[in-house]
Every structure is written in C-alpha cells, then in structure tokens.
Amino acid sequence: MSELARRLNQCKKPVGDQGKVVVDDMNERHYELTGWGLDKIKIDKAYKMLDIGCGGGRTVNRLSKAAEEGEVYGIDYSSDCVRWASEYNKELIKEGRVHISEASVEKLPFEDNKFDVVTAVETIYFWPNVEENIKEVNRVLKKGGKFIIINEIYDDDKFRERNNEFAKNSNMKIYSPEKLKSLLKNAGYLNVEMEIKEENNWICYVSEK
C-alpha cells in the first residue's frame, strides 16, 4: 500500500498512532475550510447541533462556542476518534454542552426532528450509501433545520489529476457539484444552496429540511 493510500484510509477511519497524527493535522488544516463553510449560516445561541464524522473534535468545539446556550453532539465510527474528540472537549462534556458517541451515519442514534443544524465536514466522500445516508440526516433534522456539507474536493477539470490520484488510492467518492446537489434534492431537501471557492477546489452546500 502506498503512503498516499495509507493516509487516505486513515482519513476515512482514523485509528491508532498514525490515525492520531492524521486527526491532529485535520484539526489544523480544516479550520479555515470549516470557517468558510460555517459562515454561510446563522447559528442561534440555543441551537442543538450534530457533527457527523467529528474526528478530532475541533468542529464540535467551534460549534459549541457559537451555540453557547445550546448543545452539540458529535459522532464518529472510529472508537479512537470518539476518545480523541472527547479529550479535546472534556470541559464542555463535563458542563453537559457537548456529547460525543460512536455511531454511523447509516443509523443515527437520535430521535426524529432533534437538530437545528447538522454538519458534515470532509466526510461525505466515504459515506457508504450517500443518498440513503442523507435521508437519514434529514430524519433527525427539525423542520426548517439546515444540513451543511463542507468539502475541500469536488470533481473539477482543474484539479482532476490530483483528485483522480486520491480516488485511485482509496474508495472515496468525489462528487461533481451538480451531482451532489441533485442527490440532496432527490432526498427531499428544500432550498439547496451551493457555493464554490474555485481556486481552492472547495465546495459548501446548505440544504434545508
């Protein structure tokens, strides 16, 4: 297995010492990207929010600061990530404002209509059945709630060589802007808005239930 393939596999499901290195790197490297995406919505101080694929826990921490009277939940299907994200947010967990658990987007362990906002930062490439999975996200959103997808890669001619190399060395699925927008609409979301930062190959979707 190549070094690139090993890293991409760790991005999918970080585990062990190498996974910790990758998670710490993502906490730093995705900070600007995440901020760019989150600027597309208004977060009320009492919101209840979910971060899917919470990794090292920095996005959860960031959301909790925006919703200072609300609650933020993070899930990851890597038990190591659950441990690392919990350590990163240990004070907020003690306060009862953050909750981290091991779970998959295939079956979210939450009741219907629970969250005001659900975020997915740099994770949707690895979702096993994306259309069914985004329907599952829809289930746990409140009416009028927002689902935010933030990716640093989308299918584009300018980045095709790099992106093809990523796809070849992993089982990640890189979507075209219109393809993912169509999947969101087909899954029942309303007012699907999309913004691209072309020079970075960044993309953000804000979809409303």
Architecture overview:
With 209 residues, the protein is an alpha/beta fold. The protein has a single domain (3-208), classed as Rossmann fold. The chain contains nine helices and seven strands. Strands 3-2-1-4-5-7-6 form a seven-stranded mixed β-sheet, with helices on both faces. The longest helix has 14 residues, at 16-29. The protein is globular, with a radius of gyration of 16 Å. The termini are far apart. The model has no long low-confidence stretch (mean pLDDT 92). It comes from Clostridium acetobutylicum (strain ATCC 824 / DSM 792 / JCM 1419 / IAM 19013 / LMG 5710 / NBRC 13948 / NRRL B-527 / VKM B-1787 / 2291 / W). Pfam families: Methyltransf_11 (PF08241). Keywords: Methyltransferase, Transferase.
Brief synopsis:
The chain is an alpha/beta fold and 209 residues long. It has helices at 3-12, 16-29, 31-38, 58-66, 79-88, 90-94, 130-140, 160-168, 177-186; strands at residues 48-52, 71-76, 98-102, 115-121, 141-151, 190-197, 202-208. The chain is 41% helix and 23% strand.
Keywords:
seven-stranded mixed sheet; 9 helices; alpha/beta; single chain; 209 residues
